[in-house]
């Protein structure tokens, strides 16, 4: 009994939703895609840097582009950033150029009030308490499917997804920064400028 045999056995039970822990190889990817093509909702994880890279990873595993476009609905990339401790949170001054360097449009810099945690008993003097997720959600639209079928790169897919309204991991993290939930250091540590 191996992973693919177990997954085939699950499909015989006709489940509505299948959760595949991680897609690591061609065989697992193929079975997950076949399950999706037969009307099952398949949820899984795949290790990539961002949402568009998932397409490239599946293609590199040997999955045909037409199967990728027929089976995928959406891809979510996520990271966890540390949240500022509410007990010792205080406003901090940051050079406006630092925000612009992070990717904040210059006209929006004045809208940002930045905070950090000074450290207290509640957060064991770290300034952080808990974590909050930042997401990059790429919906597989007809336009994205055309890009995949034409052999577009991850960068081209990313640009098209952004044109359609996708927020990158960096943009999502900047929203959390703007809302006073995390710090500049966390944004830099967990996202790259390309995100």
List the helices and strands and how they pair.
Blueprint lengths: L2 H10 L4 E4 L5 H12 L3 E4 L6 H11 L3 H7 L2 E11 L4 E4 L3 H7 L11 E4 L10 E12 L2 H8 L4 H10 L5 H10 L5 H7 L5
Parallel strand pairs: 1-2
Antiparallel strand pairs: 3-6, 4-5
Helix pairs in contact: 1-2, 2-4, 3-7, 4-6, 6-7, 8-9
Give the key terms.
195 residues; alpha+beta; two-stranded parallel sheet; two-stranded antiparallel sheet; 9 helices; globular
Please give a quick description of this structure:
Helix content is 42%, strand content 20%.
Textual characterization of the structure:
This protein is an alpha+beta fold and 195 residues long. It contains nine helices and six strands, in the order H-E-H-E-H-H-E-E-H-E-E-H-H-H-H. It has a two-stranded parallel ribbon. Strand 1, helix 2 and strand 2 (41-44) form a beta-alpha-beta unit. Helix 1 (3-12) packs parallel to helix 2 and helix 6 (142-149) runs antiparallel to helix 7. It starts with a helix and ends in a 5-residue tail after the last helix.
Element string (H = helix, E = strand): HEHEHHEEHEEHHHH
- The total strand number stands at 6
Largest sheet: 2 strands, parallel
User: Which whole number gives the mean pLDDT?
Assistant: 92
Structural class determined from secondary elements: alpha+beta
Q: How many separate helices?
A: 9
Low-confidence stretches: none
| Strand portion | 15-25%
Calculate Rg over CA atoms.
20 Å
Q: Tell me the helix content.
A: 40-55%
Work out the oligomeric state of the chains in this entry: single chain
Cα end-to-end separation? 40 Å
Form type: globular
Strand order of the largest sheet: 1-2
